[in-house]
Amino acid sequence: MSKTYLPAIDAIERKWHLIDADGKVLGRLAVQIADILRGKKKVIYTNHIDCGDFVIVTNAAKIVLTGKKLDQKTYFTYSGYPGGAKFKPYSVLMQEAPEKALFAAVKGMLPKNKLADKQLKRLKVFRDANHDHGAQLAAAK
């Protein structure tokens, strides 16, 4: 009988991935980012161990929504107080904070547990091509 392989937490090697979101569809891009954050493409992937990589996303303002989603889809937040529900159409959200739209899409595709918070901390989203992670440019290739 063979034992199941479990990677040591110290042995997990985290890489940096640089993704250009120019012209990409929001949902399809969010799936790719969620897979990288969870580490699903790695050989050592185990669903209860955080073995994912870092992701830098640039040009979030140039993300595309297909169909009529730009007009019909809404971003929902709730403060927890009565009457604290806020609805914002994606046409407004994509102009004001496109990085928030991508972040919410990726968050929705991660599991709802304690690992998701750790994985989301490794996601860096920027509105345009400029970002403050210059040291990772060489590592992202």
From TrEMBL:
<keyword id="KW-0689">Ribosomal protein</keyword>
<protein>
    <recommendedName>
        <fullName>Large ribosomal subunit protein uL13</fullName>
    </recommendedName>
</protein>
<dbReference type="InterPro" id="IPR005822">
    <property type="entry name" value="Ribosomal_uL13"/>
</dbReference>
<comment type="subunit">
    <text>Part of the 50S ribosomal subunit.</text>
</comment>
<dbReference type="GO" id="GO:0022625">
    <property type="term" value="C:cytosolic large ribosomal subunit"/>
</dbReference>
<keyword id="KW-0687">Ribonucleoprotein</keyword>
<dbReference type="GO" id="GO:0003729">
    <property type="term" value="F:mRNA binding"/>
</dbReference>
<dbReference type="InterPro" id="IPR005823">
    <property type="entry name" value="Ribosomal_uL13_bac-type"/>
</dbReference>
<dbReference type="GO" id="GO:0003735">
    <property type="term" value="F:structural constituent of ribosome"/>
</dbReference>
<dbReference type="InterPro" id="IPR036899">
    <property type="entry name" value="Ribosomal_uL13_sf"/>
</dbReference>
<comment type="function">
    <text>This protein is one of the early assembly proteins of the 50S ribosomal subunit, although it is not seen to bind rRNA by itself. It is important during the early stages of 50S assembly.</text>
</comment>
<dbReference type="Pfam" id="PF00572">
    <property type="entry name" value="Ribosomal_L13"/>
</dbReference>
<dbReference type="GO" id="GO:0017148">
    <property type="term" value="P:negative regulation of translation"/>
</dbReference>
<comment type="similarity">
    <text>Belongs to the universal ribosomal protein uL13 family.</text>
</comment>
<dbReference type="GO" id="GO:0006412">
    <property type="term" value="P:translation"/>
</dbReference>
